[in-house]
Amino acid sequence: MNLLKKIFLLPVLLALGTSVDAQVVSEQAPVADMLDSLMARKMFSTAFNKPVFPRNNKYKFAEDSVPVYDDYTYQARLAKLDALSPFDLVYNEHVKGFIQLYTVRKRESVQRMMGMAQLYYPMFEEILDRYNIPLELKHLAVIESALIPYARSKAGAVGLWQFMYPTGKMYGLNVTSYIDERCNPYKATVAAAEYLKMLYTMFGDWQMVLAAYNAGPGTISKAIRRSGGKKTYWEIRPYLPTETQGYVPAFIAANYVMTYGAEHNLYPALPRRTYFEVDTVVVKEQMSFTQLSQALTISEEELLYFNPQYRKNVVPAGGNALCLPRTKIATFLNNEQQIYAALKAQAAEENSQITEVKHIHTVRSGERLSTIAKKYGVTIADLATWNYLGKKQPRAGKKLVVYTAEKKPVQTAAVTTYGNPSEPVQTPSPAAEPEYRNHRVRSGETLYRIAAKYNVQVNEIVEINKLKSRNLTVGQTLKIPIVE
Asked: Domain containing 298: what range?
């Protein structure tokens, strides 16, 4: 928030009593941070048009108006929602604080989030209805991820529904070096519905389900014991972690703001596409976003926007789903065989293709994750994700799974010679000298990621640049062979 806006809103914030204590700030911090990340991501700065402000709006607000209401109004509106909901949508000071967060402090983020809802909410509702669980749970993704499909928490939870690796694996969400299905909007929503239904069989109360989704069922069971056997969220709330104490109030406030946005002069920023303007096709051959962009005349940024599950901007072979605007579906299907043929011709010309290789590494005495990551050209975070590792170093003898992207020769059919075998065999012309591009190393990049980005081998980069170490420094310039 810039200084002028802070000065403008100061009287409003003071009137609302927003000089809250440290406990409330801690409760709101995860939600506020997620909303801020929505604003910080470059993709979302171009993913939306500006909100369409209706000049003849129902409440006659000026465009820059920030409406606020008394407690009675908030309570009455939530009572209307509560009458139609299996949730206990109460109004109290904790809920009020989150309503202020959404409607005053984070207005621009909320408008973008309302725009994302047009893309994801219809799909959420369809899946939640299929599992016969309350449709209000669609708002859970608002506080989990701010509807950012590739959001990542500090603890390592990923996606719209913020699955940790083990829980995601338990519900069929696979993670490899190419695909993270926790970021697949459809598959992750199915997994979330199954998990929420399981939690309801455990606790039989939707508020308790929300708390368990955030903190884990074990933490809720412990809070129940510490409270002396209480069975409702508000009764066990003092025994919960600080973040979870703010979780249900944030959920109630999300229900409120996504229903009463117009009453607060909030209107959705229009997304590139809504749910009804996209569809999926199955891709049989490996294709990069660059190749798809050229074949379908669609930007790589837009492909990433619709397909956040592909970690390397590559759709691996094997029948993976690709989400596209409906206008591009027919283009792909009508030209599918020609696209595959062109890719095979390109691969044959390069005589190599990128493939994912699984390694089993046995940890040696004194070996650390950092040295193992450097050896394979991957990140420590990848090793931790693939192997369920915490903060401790793995013990000697432990076997670790490591995925690398490597170039392997394409197997070409042997040439059969017909006619006179004594005829001279034509040899191919000498290969042209390779061309190079320069790559400036960015923060967090590894040789493995750079090699995967440009479809080259790690060893090629090492050899061409005469690297004595695989450690990279930010700002370092590397020569990368251009693969046509």
From this structure: 275-349
DSSP annotation string for 219-244:
HHHHHHHHTTS--SHHHHGGGS-HHH
Residues 41 and 73 in one domain: yes
Of 299 and 423, which is predicted with more confidence?
299
On whether both 259 and 323 belong to a single domain, the answer is: no
Q: Span 291-320, mean pLDDT? A: 88
Which of 237, 264, 291 is the endpoint of a domain?
264
Higher pLDDT, 468 or 167: 167
- β-bridge pairing 287-288 and 278-283: unpaired
Residue tagged 């009508």 (tokens): 334
Q: For helices 247-259 and 206-215, what crossing angle results, to 10°?
A: 110
Q: What is the mean pLDDT of residues 338-355?
A: 67
Whether residue 294 sits in one domain with residue 408: no
The Cα–Cα gap between 469 and 375 comes to 10
* Same-domain status, 463 and 417: yes
List the CATH number of the domain containing 148. Answer: 1.10.530.10
Sign for the CA dihedral angle at 417, 418, 421, 427 comes to negative
Which of left, alpha, beta for 42 (phi over 0: left; psi -120 to 50: alpha)? alpha
Q: Please, how many CA atoms are within 13 Å of residue 80, restricted to the half-sphere of its CB? A: 9
**pTM of this structure:** 0.67
CA distance 476 to 442: 8
SS3 286: coil
My answer on whether 394 and 342 are in the same domain is no
pLDDT at 428: 40
